[in-house]
Amino acid sequence: MSKMDNLRAMREAKYAAAQKRGADAPARPKAPVAPPAPSAASSAKGGATKAAAVEADAPAAAEALCGHRNMSGRTCTREAGHAAKSHRYS
User: Fold this and answer.
1) What 3-state DSSP class applies to 6?
2) What is 7-25 written as a DSSP string?
3) How many CB atoms sit inside 10 A of residue 76's CB?
4) Handedness of CA 43, 47, 52, 58 (dihedral sign)
5) Which pLDDT tens digit goes with each residue over 48-62?
6) Is-contact 50 39, C-beta < 8 A?
7) C-beta separation of 74 from 89 below 8 A
8) pLDDT at 72
9) Is this model's pTM higher than 0.85 or not?
10) 11-24 burial string, b = 16+ CB within 10 Å, else e?
């Protein structure tokens, strides 16, 4: 056997072992699903308290960040929809 044949055999053995481990592992539970957003009809019934909460969130939405993520996981700190071609990561 050549060196490449040995390497191929080792790689196939590792792959087979990983597949066997994966099949034996217990199934992971699904992540919980977020509740649906309240509809406009239910917010109209809520009165002034719901309207105040929406107005409090409005400045945060206006100052929303771009949120683009680079490969290392950092996020862009520029405003959403910025015209600059580059991102500022922090």
Assistant:
1) helix
2) HHHHHHHHHHHHHHHHHHS
3) 19
4) positive
5) 555 555 555 555 555
6) no
7) yes
8) 87
9) no
10) eeeeeeeeeeeeee
87: which 2 tokens?
């991102």
Amino acid at residue number 30 = K
Contact yes or no for 79/63 (Cβ under 8 A): yes
Contact yes or no for 87/71 (Cβ under 8 A): no
Lookup result for tokens 């699904």 = 30
Beta strands in the chain (DSSP E): none
List the structure tokens of 79.
């405003």
Token pair, residue 74, equals 């950092």
Local confidence pLDDT in tens for the 90 residues of the chain: 789 999 999 999 999 998 888 777 676 777 777 777 776 555 555 555 555 555 555 555 557 888 888 888 888 888 888 888 888 887
Other beta carbons within 10 angstroms of residue 78's beta carbon come to 16
